[in-house]
Amino acid sequence: MSETPWLVVPAAGQGRRMGADRPKQYLPLAGAPVLARTLQRLHLAFPRARLCLCLDPEDGRFDPAWVPFADWRRVPGGAERVDSVVNALMAIAGDAADEDPVLVHDVARPCVTVDDLRRLHAAVVEDPVGALLAAPVADTMKRDDGAGRVRGTEPRAGLWHAQTPQGFPYGLLRRALAAAAEHGVAVTDEASAVEALGMAPRLIGARRDNLKITHPEDLALAELILAAQAAASSHDPKPR
Ligand SMILES: Nc1ccn([C@@H]2O[C@H](COP(=O)(O)OP(=O)(O)OP(=O)(O)O)[C@@H](O)[C@H]2O)c(=O)n1
Ligand SMILES: C[C@](O)(CO)[C@H](O)COP(=O)(O)O
């Protein structure tokens, strides 16, 4: 088993909810594209990792100069996030061993800290059914009635926001995603496929500022988060 993780970064989304003039991974964040910022964070935590970057085959904006890893490959993205991840796993089939840890991280989460990345990786190396970064829900949860009014208040005890990275042994993740596809299980994150096999990945309590840039206001928030992290930490240097 290689303890240095494989990194899979799905970056083939269109950023429809962002509604910008380009996919959100190419929007500038503290002076560099979101994609470059996210890869910088991953590289700080795992400088020798092998990277699979999933990109839209028709993407004309990508610049390989943004990739700080020595060992990396470009993989075609699929129709949905899960299809992009499956393509990446297939692309490394000849090189990855079943026990190798694979961390999947959204390109849209540039604020993940080195400390959380390393804690997640340590948990994945230790745990045969994998782990994910997550944060306990902090708000009161309402369910709507489908017509803009409250139907009820949901108990929030035990609810977590799933983040990325999510990490699993290579063989387990491939098996889980293949089984989910076969049985029509909806997969919005890797853990849900593993859960569908009856396994319980570990929740690793993470910082709440591991924001997924999704809506227009998130970009300014991410910029503030990076600046605050840089001021507070020696691990995460000031954005250049
Ligand atoms: N076919 C797809 C769809 C999404 N992603 C990636 O999966 C991550 C999470 O997806 P999301 O935040 O939904 O990004 P988008 O699909 O770009 O956004 P939207 O749903 O608003 O269009 C992003 O890093 C995105 O680039 C991908 O690699 N392939
Ligand atoms: C994987 C994920 O980041 C976990 O929160 C999230 O589900 C991806 O976002 P999407 O909108 O479901 O693509």
UniProtKB/TrEMBL annotation:
Question: Keywords for this entry?
Answer: Isoprene biosynthesis, Nucleotidyltransferase, Transferase
EC number(s) reported in the record? 2.7.7.60
Record's signal peptide? none
GO terms (molecular function) for this protein are: 2-C-methyl-D-erythritol 4-phosphate cytidylyltransferase activity
Query: Which reaction equation describes what this protein catalyses?
Result: 2-C-methyl-D-erythritol 4-phosphate + CTP + H(+) = 4-CDP-2-C-methyl-D-erythritol + diphosphate
- GO BP annotations listed: isopentenyl diphosphate biosynthetic process, methylerythritol 4-phosphate pathway
Statement: the UniProt record of this protein carries the keyword Nucleotidyltransferase: yes
Its biological purpose: Catalyzes the formation of 4-diphosphocytidyl-2-C-methyl-D-erythritol from CTP and 2-C-methyl-D-erythritol 4-phosphate (MEP).
Which protein family is named in the record? Belongs to the IspD/TarI cytidylyltransferase family. IspD subfamily.
What is this protein's record name?
2-C-methyl-D-erythritol 4-phosphate cytidylyltransferase
Name the species this protein comes from: Halomonas stenophila
Q: What is the lineage of its organism?
A: Bacteria, Pseudomonadati, Pseudomonadota, Gammaproteobacteria, Oceanospirillales
Q: Which gene encodes it?
A: ispD
